[in-house]
Amino acid sequence: MTRTDTVVVPNHLDRHPDKRRLVSHFIHKMRINNARPYPSSKQIDAIVAGDYPTPMEQLDNLVVFIGNNCKGPGHTIPVEPNGHSTLIGTKTPDGLIFVVQSALSLNLVDGPVTMGGHAHLKLTLRGWQRFEELKRGAPSGTRAFMAMKFGDIELDAMLEKHFKPAVLQTGFTLQTVGDNRKAGLIDDKIRVDIRAARFLVADLTHHNNGAYWEAGYAEGLGKPVIYTCRADVFDNEKTRPHFDTNHHLTVKWNAATPEQAVEDLKATIRQTCPDAKQID
What we know:
Elements: H1 3-15, H2 20-32, H3 41-49, H4 55-69, E1 77-79, H5 81-88, H6 93-105, E2 109-110, E3 119-123, H7 125-136, E4 143-147, H8 153-169, E5 173-175, H9 186-196, E6 199-203, H10 209-220, E7 225-230, H11 231-235, H12 243-246, E8 250-253, H13 259-272
Parallel strand pairs: 4-5, 4-6, 6-7, 7-8
Antiparallel strand pairs: 1-3, 2-3
C-alpha cells in the first residue's frame, strides 16, 4: 500500500462510518483468498458505494468459514458475534446471530449457541455439500463474466469481435451484465453473475470503478480474475492501472493488432482453469 493509500483509506472510513465493517469484510476476503493484501483506493471508492452481502451470501460465507477452518467433519469451531461479524459480512453482531440461527434452521450447521450468540459450530452433511459446491464455484459451469467500461466503441469492438470468440475457443462463454438482461436491480444481477461465473475478465483501460469493484468481489469469492488493458495505457507510467493490479498478469491489447491479445487471453485462461478446452 502506498503512502497515498495510507491516507486515503482512513479518510474514506471517516466519511462513511457505516461502511467500516463492509471494508473490513472485503479485506478479510482478499487475504483469505490470497488476493492483494489491501484494497486499492479505487476499490475503496467502489466498496463504500456498494452494500453489504445479502443474507444468502452471508449464509454461504459462514459455511465457507467453518469449512475452511475446521479440521474435518465433526470438528467444531467457535463463532463469535463480535469477532466474526465483519468476516461473514454482517452490518452488526446481531446480524451474525441471525445468520447462525438461519444456518441451524436450514440444517447447514449444528452445535450449541449461548443466549449471547456465542456458538461452537460444525457443518452437517448438507453443510459439507454446500461447502463443496461453493469451493468448486458452483453453479459456475462454462460462463465467464466481463467487467469493463461500457459505451467505449473501441473496447466494445474488442469484446465482441475478439475477446468473446477467444474465450469461446477455450470452452467458456464470456458474458457482460448487459447480456440476457432481466428485470431487477443491476447491482444484484452483477453479484449473481459473478458468483455464477467460472472466472472474471476485468478491463482496466479506463480505470472504471465498477470494474475494480467487480474484480475485487470476484477475488473475494475465490474466483480467478484475468486483467486486460489497452497496451498504450498499461505501458504509460502515468496512466497504467493501479499498482495493486499492475503486478498481476495483464493481457495487453491493441485494437489495430488484436491477434496477440487473443492468443495471450486464451493461454492465460488455459493456465488458470484446468477444465478449459486446451486446443482450439
